[in-house]
Amino acid sequence: MSDKDLKGVGLVSDHAYSVISAYEVDHKGGQKLRLLKLRNPWGHQEWTGDWSDESPKWTAELRTKLKFTEA
Fold first, then answer.
1. CATH assignment of 3-65, given 3.90.70.10, 1.10.8.80, 3.40.50.2300, 3.40.50.740?
2. What is the pTM (predicted TM-score) of this model?
3. Beta-strand runs (E) in 1-71
């Protein structure tokens, strides 16, 4: 991805992120879904791509299963 692409989804290039948690859950059609929860130590810019807080990919079932909270 280019710097422009990364910035477009809220990531900073050449930057370290902390991994808060990792999940693997059963998803549609029996496929496995793997998600990482990351923290930006700088405390600004937020992920806006797939599976972001506002993403339509979140279902009520997954939000409950993964104890989703908007922060």
1. 3.90.70.10
2. 0.72
3. 18-26, 32-39
